[in-house]
Amino acid sequence: MNPSALDPTLQPELARALHSYVMESGRLVVVEVDSDGRIMGANVTFRSRFAGFADVRGESLSRFLASDDEMPDIEPGLAHRTAIARIFNTVMGGENYLFHAYPLNAHTLLIGEPAKTDDSDVIGRMGNLALEMSRLVRDLRKANHDLAVANELNQQLARTDALTHLANRRYFMERLQQGVVQAQSRRHALSILMMDLDHFKQINDSFGHAAGDTALTAFAELLRALVRMSDLPGRLGGEEFGLYMFDTHRHVAAAVAERIRASTWELRPNGLDHRLSVSIGIAVLEPEEDAEALIRRADAALYQAKNQGRNRVVIAGPESEHATGREENAPRKD
Questions:
Q1: Interior angle at CA 326, CA 321 and CA 332, nearest 5
Q2: pLDDT, tens digit, 9 for 90 and up, residues 169-198
Q3: According to CATH, where is 3.30.450.20 located in the chain?
Q4: Is 13 annotated as catalytic?
Q5: Could you count the other beta carbons within 10 Å of the beta carbon of residue 110?
Q6: Which of 95, 132, 174, 239 is catalytic?
């Protein structure tokens, strides 16, 4: 294998992983040098073979290894970010070593092993070492990808409600606070909906908690279907939900809330013999208002919707006396 066929243009985390892996190797001889040929670090195999286990940091590489030139030639090829192979011989003893050079930012990582003088054997060792490094880089890339996927999954789990897969309360509040700061600085509109499923305890008491979970997940799916990709619905706890809508004015928020309310009334999750309804409070961000104050006003509007008979939308602020929806005097069962 041509060593230049390797792709050592590693992402920083892969370069660090490769560096850490080979530095722990007990078979490979590994040394890291700067652009002046000064040793920045070496593994125990290098130090044991060339320096009697002494610390070699700051020493010139030419003290231990030599090539046909006066200084070990490790630069050619690196400008094109390709690995190169070189045969060096030890200054003391004249033993030959095959090294591959890998660029790490402004530094060079030399990874090598003993090489016999027979040309065919040297060529074979060059191929074997290149193949080994290629496999190592591939394995490190896969491990790095798997780790990135696992980290993303963990982050998603940390910000997602386990039952409904909506944003959990913590993530919802973080995003809302960021949105409020952005809206205030750019003078954009921002609206939130606080929603609570009415008489939810009756579902759990009459049909069991599994039916209650089904109702919650059905409502969550309804929210996802009715809102924009830029909106953030979240489960804030129990049967309480929130919806954060950036760049959304009062009349748009009211229209969205009414669609949610009307669609909830039509829900029959898994044939549940029960009319679901939701009470909704809306608050539109006021100048100089923070996220906590905005939530308090939306909560107050929600409680007003509950007190006025449930299954309705109430807007906080000067228009809070105006409500839409129907009185909850319809029969609960079909």
A1: 140
A2: 999 999 999 999 999 998 999 999 999 999
A3: 3-157
A4: no
A5: 25
A6: 239
